[in-house]
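thought: fold this chain, then report.
action: predict
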Amino acid sequence: MRCHSCMLAALWFTTLPAQAVVTFFNDETAFDTATSGLLFTTDDFSTDVGRDNPIVFESGVTSLNVGGPPFGTDNAIFGGVYNNAIEGAGNVASVSFVWTFPEPVVAVGLQYLGVDEDALNVLVDGALRALRESADADPLNGFFGFTTTNPVTQITFNTFSPTPIDFFDFDDLQFAAAPAVVPLPGALPLLLGSLAGLAFAARGPRSQ
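observation:
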């Protein structure tokens, strides 16, 4: 006797989407190895963008400050780097800022300068990590990156409230879209059917 409730439960579990696996990196070599097969878009912030909210990078990324003064403290590109600041209380600088990518991405990496220890967090599809952790070797400056099995269009930068204001710069942003899935040609099923028919006909009638 079949257990219909068991069958329904099994069907329900098999149709649930797989939970995203987000992996963070503070070592650029390890990041490069993990993403060697991906095609990256890069942004060296060589084109200045005046302080505003939001702003759009040359690579198509939109940066929006949230909370605090209207424009936050910076949210600008000047001198070859992206400038911003963050403050838990939101009195002088933004509480957080959000980057929206022009298409869903599976990997992001950047260089950071002047980030305080355990001050700036990055939220990726529910996974949270400090941009620079206390264990990171180089004080204030370094590399941050992540990969995710679930393509995302946005990441959020925020801070541990009430962290004092932290000014920082980003450089050499790189991001990779999910690899394209190449669909089968529309005529392929017909071709396979024709080949199967020819193979059957070639066998000829069975002898009695």
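thought: worth noting. The first strand starts at residue 22 and ends at 25.
final: tokens above.
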